[in-house]
Amino acid sequence: MDKICISADSTFDMTPEMAERYEIKVIPSYVRMDETDYFDYPDIKQEALFEYYSQTKKLPQTAAANPMEYEKFFIECLAGHDSVVHIAKSAWMSCCYENAMIAAQKLKNVYVVDSTTISGGSALLALETVKQKEFLDAIDLQEHLFDFREKISGSFIVETVEYLHEGGRCSTLTYFGASAMQIKPSLIIRDGRLSVGKKYMGSYRRCLRDYIESTLLPLEENERDILVVAHAIQDEALLNFAIGQIEGKHYFKEICKMKIGAAVACHGGPNVFGVFLIKK
Prior knowledge:
Elements: E1 4-9, H1 16-21, E2 24-27, E3 30-33, E4 36-39, H2 46-56, E5 61-63, H3 67-78, E6 83-88, H4 96-104, E7 110-114, H5 120-132, H6 138-148, E8 152-157, H7 162-166, H8 172-180, E9 183-190, E10 193-201, H9 204-216, E11 224-231, H10 236-247, E12 252-259, H11 262-268, E13 273-278
Parallel strand pairs: 1-2, 1-6, 6-7, 11-12
Antiparallel strand pairs: 3-4, 3-5, 8-9, 8-13, 9-10, 11-13
């Protein structure tokens, strides 16, 4: 059986400790604040992004690694391995996948998988890759992941549309309307793209409660393996409230909590909260 190296774009939002535990190699993207570029992983914390925006009213800019950087990264991954299976951020959301493919075509035995998702969804795909790599060679593993990614469901709820507005993802009219009416929209990941889902009204605590209830309502009451929560909740009490609501359902053997990285934080803003799971 091939000795496979699993790698991923940093936008899968696993902590460095988790990535090390599962032996996943991570390639960072970039965050630009003023004229300085930083690695988004593991250098920049979400709090620094929010503080920058609060002080300057300018969104940090994000950028993928370029093809040459991917090529160098894959060569390093191949050292001591027969092949590489790389989990990329959705091709509809970034050029990460495109740049990784350009690099992979110059090398042998590098297999890139468009996760068609981001954050906790990409993390679930990476975990499945780790689970199956002992039983499948790299080509079969890639094919398995093409099927498995269709089972991953993910969405977010945002407290404010201000960051979406500043990033050009919602109109000024929508921004003022949502702010005036206390509307908190959900963002659903479907076919690799983000689209607006159900809208909630009222305090964020109430909207968060209703979002969780609505998201988990279709699930059967039999226990599932894992749910990933990817978030930028700044208030620990609010996070505990949300996690407690999920735990109270007794649907999942494990609830994995991850702080979102720059790619989601720069658009979702403080207190964005996402839920990712594997559909039966």
